[in-house]
Amino acid sequence: MSSMLRPYDAYLFDLDGTLVDTAPDLGRALNISLLEAGFPGVSVDQARQWIGFGARYSIIQAVQHHQLTLTEPETDELFERFLSYYEAHVADSSTPYESVIDTLDALHDAGAKLAVVTNKPERFTLPLLAALSLDGYFESVISGDTAPQPKPAADPVLLCLKELNVTAEQALMIGDSSADVGAAKAARVDVACFRSGYNHGIDVHSLEPDFVFDQMREILPAS
Questions:
Q1: Beta 20-21 vs 113-117: how paired, if at all?
Q2: What is the extent of the structural domain holding 29?
Q3: Which of 47, 55, 76, 161 is the most exposed place for a label (fewest CB within 10 A)?
Q4: DSSP state letters, 16-50
Q5: Whole-model pTM?
Q6: How far is 172 from 8, CA to CA, in rounded Å?
Q7: Which among 32, 57, 88 is the end of a domain?
Q8: Active-site residue flag, 203
């Protein structure tokens, strides 16, 4: 693992837990959808542990946490409640992590190509980026339903490289989870991992990324 990153021509960012702390809005959507269905709610801190594998996964984890048993139709109804609420409140309390904006500015000013590669569905990804005034930074946005398979498959990363017209050697994937590291390695792209993202209690060093950082500015090459 490197202690310093070289310059890259392209930087591919995960969204939830990497660029933006979306847990407050995702947690609220999960909590309200549970309460409206007559189930016990959850805290944002609890929801934060379940983010990263999609809304249905979070719902199943919440149900299991409360030792409840739901039928598939009941799970589907909860899922739709969640999606409906979250779509209307996608950026109420979500904020970019510290130094994210400064880092994007620095990379953009240096002429690097920037992209988002997320498993978040496009119906939420694009409004979230626009609401936080982040959309103008990215030449390519690959959402969870853009490529044939989501991360950890290589498909989203490879599609992004094609859209940016760069090789794997020219790009760095920046993420926070096993899905990001898996996708990057499958696409033979270097990967940097945020230590404090949505990684489900896993020490990101165990994922063997090329670089681990605590602040986004650390991915900037030394001047």
A1: unpaired
A2: 23-88
A3: 76
A4: BTTTEE-HHHHHHHHHHHHHHTTS----HHHHHTT
A5: 0.94
A6: 7
A7: 88
A8: no
